[in-house]
Amino acid sequence: MKIRAAVIRQSGLPEPYASSRPLSIEEVELAPPGEREVLVQVKAAGLCHSDLSTINGNRPRQTPMVLGHEAAGVVRALGPGVTDLAEDDHVVMVFAPSCGECMPCKEGFPARCERGQAANNAGTLIGGHVRLSQGGAAVYHHVGVSAFAEYCVVNRGSVVKIDPALPFDEAAVFGCAVLTGVGAALNTARVFAGASVAVVGLGGVGLNALLGAAVAGASRIVAIDLHDDKLELASQLGATDVINAKDPDAVAKAKALTGGGVDFGFEMAGSVQAMEMAYRVTRRGGTTVTAGLPHPDARWPLQHVNLTAEERTVKGSYMGSCVPPRDLPRYVDLYRRGKLPVNRLMSDHLPLERINEGFDALASGHTVRQIVMFD
Prior knowledge:
30% of the residues lie in helices and 27% in strands. It is α/β, with parallel strands linked by helices and 375 residues long. Helix 5 crosses helix 6 and helix 5 (168-189) packs across helix 11. It is globular, with a radius of gyration of 20 Å.
């Protein structure tokens, strides 16, 4: 079938993207779903920093590629072997496909799936197939989803069925921002009741980490960012203290507020400077968690003796260490009970044709989650 999609052909074009137009809206061919695959009509897709990282060149990908990975939609066709979904089911898409057969999957860590990671790096679906094309030439998949399009074909393991009463724009953010941020707090760090927490970087993922820490019962939550408007939003969402990262005394202030440092420091900006700050505001014996995805060449100079002498823990968190079929429904339930007000994170809604303008807004740092709507 022929669909409209946002295609990237070259990373690293200059800002403003409204002028350089790294994403072009083009007609592409989408093949039917194969074995264990599903055709989804996309209804809403969020603009995420992981998409921006491909646009600005921080996360190089195969091109041409249809971007977009945080989305919700409706199942329209099922490939052979898919027996637990039906047409017209509402689903949220997730960006870490899992095979269920490799050792990480068997151990209960689908976000670490070896086959899924290899497929994402290659721009294919987990079975090795490319279902997108143009003039007979391959157009690659973005982390197994490619949701900046009217329709997408994904592996069965890349979708989670949801209650159709949940609006599509709200549902979309659960596929990346919520799973990654809330999961980092609840699964990776295992924030405990009464803990002290600092979150460095208040984008969609960082604010969800803040919400996750609040759900876990953290007694002190220090929000750190470069932008005062995001600090204000953080205060409304449960931060007990806010600090502008440009303040030369930011680290000292955070440590003074928390009696020498926090139990858990979260780096959510994807930069070495943010990682250094998150580590420095973490107390002796504390844990620093990063979900940031900087350029592959980025290096963080860790003082080895400090790690040992202070018995520190540094952990990476990918997709919030989540098991999507288990965690996503739990987080939706928390949202409906008013515990995870993720709807407060939505900054704007826009049509696919304005997607480059949307990424200009995201790059400016003054927006949290913009949602492309397809209806």
